[in-house]
Design goal:
The complex is a heterodimer.
Chain A: H1 20-34, E1 36-37, E2 43-44, E3 49-50, E4 54-55, E5 62-70, E6 79-83, E7 86-88, H2 93-102, E8 113-118, H3 124-136, E9 141-145, E10 147-148
Parallel strand pairs in A: 3-10, 5-8, 8-9
Antiparallel strand pairs in A: 2-5, 5-6, 6-7
Chain B: H1 18-32, E1 33-34, E2 39-44, E3 61-66, E4 72-74, E5 77-79, H2 81-93, E6 109-114, H3 120-145, H4 155-164, E7 169-171
Parallel strand pairs in B: 3-6, 6-7
Antiparallel strand pairs in B: 3-4, 4-5
Helix pairs in contact in B: 2-3, 3-4
């Protein structure tokens, strides 16, 4: 066995760090591409997970409604609705959604989807009210945002 | 005019700090961004109708109720969410030709009712199972008719499969036991 013993040199080769910036830049570009600037979130949302999810195709054709506990989190925090960057009362959702729709070109109105980003722990009463408001605003395409997973 | 003498030697730019600059940018983007989740369960809400609903044969209706403590009642039986998918598939297809089941899949209606205190998590779980039941039925039909998976079919073919087993999930007004 000793035959095969290789001679170890005492000089350690130095690892070149010249390509380090390139690697970091690659990471940087990855994050720049896959991410969108975070909106000011006024509510805390932990999405549920589901197995039968579909991807929303056109991000520009989606309106978002966020429902969750208002920040800062405390015992007194209540579930509130956020649209665009402000809280909205549950009976004003229709107006707020109509405003969002009006900002989009008219020929796309029939293709708009509303993405409901709702915290797991929210009770259905509030959500039903929001859905009724959406029906009044004639925004019938809805997407319950969920993480991929679950699937028992 | 005296000619100035330029040095011919270009000083090399030190690229050693490039990594640091890139790191700073990277950290900035890491902090200020979130990966948006644009996936979810797609649902079409019913338009607001003034006409009262047509009377329907109760045999065709699969009643799914979720109460305020997130318990599930399917056709009057306490059920676990895990069993809902199989039960729904069996109900819609009615392989045993039972009298109290829809005579054909096109007649089947799933009626989902929850309480105002039901948690969203439970609701999504239940809804997901119902959709999964339909997705599996469509997959089976696609295999039977086209010998291909539902996803690989063309839009028209998918539509024809859905016409055989139409997705009808009707949501009733939620109950309100807690008086919210």
């Amino acid at each position: 066995m000793a035959k095969f013993k290789s001679k170890k040199s005492n000089i350690r080769p130095e690892i070149s760090t010249a390509s380090l910036p390139d690697i970091i830049f690659m990471l940087l570009f990855f994050f720049m591409v896959v991410t969108v600037l975070r909106k000011d979130m006024l509510v805390n949302i932990q999405l549920p997970s589901a197995s039968e999810v579909q991807k929303l195709e056109h991000r520009s054709l989606v309106n978002h409604i966020y429902i969750g506990q208002s920040k800062p989190i405390s015992d007194q925090a209540i579930n509130r609705i956020q649209i665009n960057d402000a809280f909205v009362n549950k009976d004003q959702v229709e107006v707020a959604i109509r405003q969002l729709v009006a900002q989009k070109p008219e020929n796309l109105h029939s293709r708009l989807t509303t993405s409901l980003q709702i915290d797991k722990a929210v009770q259905m009463g509030l959500i039903t009210d929001v859905k009724t408001q959406l029906r009044k605003a004639n925004q019938l395409k809805v997407n319950y945002a969920a993480y991929v997973g679950g699937g028992r | 005019m005296s000619e100035k003498k330029f040095r011919r030697l270009d000083p090399a730019v030190n690229a050693g700090s490039m990594a640091d600059i890139a790191f700073l940018l990277l950290i900035f983007f890491l902090v200020t961004t979130t990966i948006v989740n644009d996936k979810g369960i797609r649902v079409a809400l019913p338009p607001i109708a003034n006409t009262p609903p047509k009377p329907i044969n109760q045999d065709n209706v699969l009643t799914v109720k979720v109460n305020a403590s997130n318990q599930l009642l399917v056709e009057g039986q306490m059920t676990q969410v895990e069993d809902l998918r199989a039960f729904t598939k069996e109900f819609i297809m009615n392989p045993q030709e039972r009298e109290d089941r829809p005579s054909k899949p096109t007649a089947a209606i799933v009626s989902l009712q929850n309480d105002r205190s039901t948690s969203y998590d439970t609701y999504i779980n239940v809804y997901n199972e119902l959709r999964a039941a339909y997705n599996e039925l469509w997959e089976e039909q696609a295999q039977q008719i086209y010998n291909a998976s539902y996803k690989s079919l063309s839009k028209a073919q998918q539509k024809s499969v859905r016409a055989i087993i139409p997705l009808v999930i009707s949501e009733a007004e939620p109950s309100d036991y807690a008086g919210l």
